[in-house]
Amino acid sequence: MRLKTTFVLFLCLSFLSIPAVFSQAKQGRVLPSEGHKYLDTRCTDYYSRPVLHVRNDSLNDVAFSDLMRHRGVPMGPMTILNIRRLTKLSKASQLFFIAHECGHHVLGHLYFRQPGQMAEQEADCYAIRSLIRSGVFTLNDVADVQEDMRKYAQPSRMHISGEERALALIDCME
Question: pTM value?
Answer without folding.
Answer: 0.77
